[in-house]
Amino acid sequence: MSLLQKHSRSEKELALELAVLISIADNELNYYSNNGTKLYFDHYFNANKRNVLNLYLEELDIERKNLDKILNSYDNNLSQSITRAVDIVFSKYRDDRNIQKETLKLMEKLDISIINASTAAINKCMSYIPMIKEEILYMALQGILDKRNLKLSGKDKKIFLFELIYLALLYGNYESIIFILRKLCNLFSIDFEYVDEFKDMAKEYCFARNKLNSINENIRELIEE
């Protein structure tokens, strides 16, 4: 059960936006995937992450349309925050010769024709450069929180941090999102040492939950005999 289940609708919606943000924050690029979403970093999304989000949606006890809107439209806080961040970051690095070289290398690696590539395709490749992507997500995180402008207590902020760590473990991208967790701790004025403590607790919670699911399955099998 999510620790945010009894919180306000706005807080749950923020939790879901952050949950999707960290789902696309890792370094594993599956460029040729077709995940059927409109996420800017769609190629970092996969079926496992979708399943985790579906379960989290149930735990938050909010309507499915909230997740559908984030994944399948551009009219949402997450997409708008990323779009604004992309514009700012691109204007900062577009003429950087080192970034241009990295973009060309990535295009070659992904077998994208440099001659025939559209500006959008080139920009997309540029956004996959780790340094660029991190800066985009930093700014998007700030934008999401600013847009919501919720007055969260210190306790609430720690709950958000714990739940994101728990989700990252389920996604399998925990090590890749440390930079996001560090930024969130900074924005929330939380000591980063809490991250390791929450990680240990989240691992224990995952183990206990899996054990409980196994016990429930055994009970059902015995009943069906």
Number of helices: 10
Spatial gap, N to C terminus: 30 Å
Computed CA radius of gyration, to the nearest angstrom: 19 Å
Shape: globular
The fraction of residues in strands falls at: under 5%
Main sheet overview: none
Number of strands: 0
Keywords: Membrane, Transmembrane, Transmembrane helix
Transmembrane segments: 159-181
Short description:
With 225 residues, the chain is mostly helical.
Fold and architecture overview:
There is one protein chain. The protein starts with 8 loop residues before the first helix and ends with a helix. Helix 1 (9-23) runs antiparallel to helix 2 (47-60) and helix 1 (9-23) packs antiparallel against helix 7. The chain has helices at 9-23, 47-60, 64-72, 77-93, 97-109, 119-127, 130-148, 154-171, 178-188, 193-224. The chain has one domain. It is an all-alpha fold and 225 residues long. The radius of gyration is 19 Å and the shape is globular. 70% of the residues lie in helices and 0% in strands.
What characteristics describe this protein?
mainly alpha; 225 residues; 70% helix; transmembrane helix; membrane; 10 helices
What order do the helices and strands come in, and which of them pair?
Elements: H1 9-23, H2 47-60, H3 64-72, H4 77-93, H5 97-109, H6 119-127, H7 130-148, H8 154-171, H9 178-188, H10 193-224
Helix pairs in contact: 1-2, 1-3, 1-7, 1-8, 4-7, 5-6, 7-9, 8-9, 8-10
Keywords: Membrane, Transmembrane, Transmembrane helix
Transmembrane segments: 159-181
